[in-house]
Protein: Cupin domain-containing protein
Amino acid sequence: MHSFPSVAVDDHVTRRVLADSPELMVVAFDFREGGVGAPHHHRHVQSTYCESGRFRFHVGERAFDVGPGDSFVIPSDVVHGCTCLEVGRLVDSFAPRRDDFL
Structure:
């Protein structure tokens, strides 16, 4: 079992790897209000679970809001990003592992 430190993404967002294997990685992202997950894409399939807070997501051509208990999947190579509307935490799973987060 590994213990990973929190890493500042910027002034409004931190991330912490919770668990990883070559096939799967689970990462918690803590956002302050106004924090932005800049639009990006990657080869990994991503599942996002909103543990707390409120967020506005853009996934491909869709825009939608999520709150506590909401979850969804982002397919490989689809551009996505979010803005934090209320302080909160997102828990993302990536398959395979995001080696750039290690």
